[in-house]
Amino acid sequence: MDPFWSYGLMIAGGAGWTLALILAVIPVGIVLGLLGAAAKLSSWRVLRLGAETYTTFIRAMPELLVIFLVFFGGARAFNWLLAAVGFPEIQIDFNPFLAGVIALGVVQGAFATEVFRAALLAVPAGQIEAAQACGFSRWQTFRFVTLPQVWRLALPGLGNLLQILIKDTALISVVGLADIMRNAQIASGATKQPFTFLLLAAAVYLLFTTVATAVMMLLERRANHAWRRA
Amino acid sequence: MDFELIAEAWPDLLKGAGLTLQLLFLPLAVATVLSIPLAIARSSHRFWVRIGPAAYTFVFRGTPLLVQIFLIYYGIGQFESLREGFLWENILSNAYWCAMIAFTLNNLAYITELMRGGIQTVPHGEVEAARAYGMSGFQTYRLVILPRMWRTILPAYSNEVVFSLKATSLASVVTVLDLTGQAKVYYSQYYEPYDFFIAAGFLYLIMVFVITRVLKGIEWLLGADRRPVKHRGETPAAADVADPATGPAGPA
Amino acid sequence: MKKSLFGLAAASIIALSATAHAAPKEVRIGTEAAYAPFEFVDPSGKIVGFEVELGDAICAAAELKCVWSNVPFDALIPQLMEKKIDGIMSSMSITEKRQKSIDFTSKYFQVPNAFVAKKGTTIELTKEALKGKKVGVQSGTTNADYLKKYFDGAVEIVRYQTQEEVNMDLVNGRLDAMVVDSVIGTEWFKTEQGKNFALASPMLKDPVFGSGVGVGLRKGDAELKGAFEKGVAKVLADGTAQKLSQKWFGVDIYK
Lengths: 230, 252, 255
Known about the structure:
With 230 residues, chain A is mostly helical. Chain A has a single domain, classed as MetI-like fold. In chain A, 82% of the residues lie in helices and 0% in strands. The longest helix of chain A has 38 residues, at 3-40. Chain B has one domain (3-229): MetI-like fold (Orthogonal Bundle). Chain B is built from 10 helices and no strands. Chain C has 2 domains: 24-110 and 211-249, Periplasmic binding protein-like II (D-Maltodextrin-Binding Protein, domain 2); 113-209, D-Maltodextrin-Binding Protein, domain 2 (3-Layer(aba) Sandwich). Chain C has helices at residues 2-22, 50-61, 76-81, 96-99, 142-151, 163-172, 182-189, 222-237, 240-249, and strands spanning 25-31, 34-35, 39-41, 47-48, 64-70, 87-88, 103-109, 113-118, 134-138, 156-160, 177-181, 197-199, 213-217. In chain C, strand 9 (134-138), helix 5 (142-151) and strand 10 form a beta-alpha-beta unit. Chain C is globular. The chains are: A mainly alpha (230), B mainly alpha (252), C alpha/beta (255). The interface between A and B is large, with 64 and 53 residues.
């Protein structure tokens, strides 16, 4: 096969890893974000302080540095932690993929914390008061009044985060995941056409971000459906 | 943590931090200046004026910065005609300047979109009023639209500066010994994953803190006329979220 | 019914572990596959190369089942220490510095290192002659240690993540020279990219380069070390290594 096509196919194959990474990070980011937002709005000082430290540090750190820390130091920290709680026999295999999920998940979580916090605060206080006046408990108020609205209010912010995430996945290539970017580098090194293959990689990423934008627009339209009718 | 190791690396880490700041401010300044005409063109009503900048921001905001840096650093090697002459000798042969170019182009795309948003929020009535006073198009932009735009975009602009600072760490993958690059070199000599990366992270934290404080100060100064009536703004992140006031409350 | 199902499951687990014992033990070998022709990724995504085939032969001789994983060079030793991999075969030289952290088997090959530059260049190995020159090396290698030890302050040492990137930048003209395994060099000169380059210095002799390439192992992993020693000795004695060298390099690097 012509090297252009064989390396082109290799880059396309890397898109599978990129997609898998994106899909694995999204739930981690959302869960961390919800926990972080809950902690920031909690009445316990310790929780607020912890969440504040988390978001301040992570949002100031370059993603690449977080990736290095997790990839090079994550296993040692985790194994030490597992041994400390009494499971020395468990060994976690910190391959580039897992390191990527953890590093990018932690980064996404810090930003998602801010998005969810703002969304929770954006639910009008009058609605909460009304719910309580109707005899709703705190949990019921949260479950039936606040939560359904948080999704709608948080969507635009989450859309931004998704764009950032897609582009950040390219950084995992630096620690060796055979994603789009890493394969484009291999092709660049093996042929005399670095520009061609890197441009191809750029095109694949552009496809990813464009599709993500379309999906988010669709979700936003659906989430706002009821509001437009009213 | 081994503080002796950190002490050994510290001078180099500081040197790296200095390079990081250069990689932040020079591209940022150039991009900010170039963004103004580009944003004006981007918000034009004429399709053919708008399409160029729109395509530019679409491509540069839709692809990873890492790809852009690699394209500029390794990609141009594919064109032998570029590998000689003045441009190569003085600029492209140098990793530092390649990173500068990549950061400038990347910042340009983001700041242009930011400014476009700012320009579009200027109420149309103000523009009409300026015209009614006999201001030329240039005067309208200089005296009415751009000052208002600045005040609108400043919180988002500060966010952009912080993102840009963190993005400079990518220069390390094309051999520039910025703060991240220095930490990486020490890591590969001692295989100590925590000491150097955490020390570097600490320095980034300080830089972010100082920069956001300064920009908050500027924001405060620019908002002088609005202060008595307006509460201090929410954190910029809140601006990303849809305005709750637009959602109709009450039963449908 | 339930009981018999449980019994079946238990039986199959026992059977599984029994077969696991009978079959050769699985050993995870880390390599940085960006070092053609020793180890590199082919277009189909497979890790191939001289050292990979030699490594497989060593494992077969040692009755081990080896699986290869691609790890950045400067992450190999930490990953070994953290038990993410069990062995290193990545043209990693046995040096005193590395022996502080890990163990090595006896060497399975040794190639000298040298400067590489544009054809027709001769590099004089003095600080004065190299002053202001840009010399590229892969980060974390003995080549980097060598430059730092003898030419720090005189030459500008440019460190790259992979050897591929050093090659690319030498071609691009951003570097005046690079320090590299001489075999990597001579193989690279045969390619379209490297045809205008040649060895530019005598072979470098220095303790910094260590005493050949061995399998990197965790300290105290005596069982694995014993097996690998046996494997290395066998492939060197029965001519497998020499044959592979002929196949990949066209010369016998063991002479």
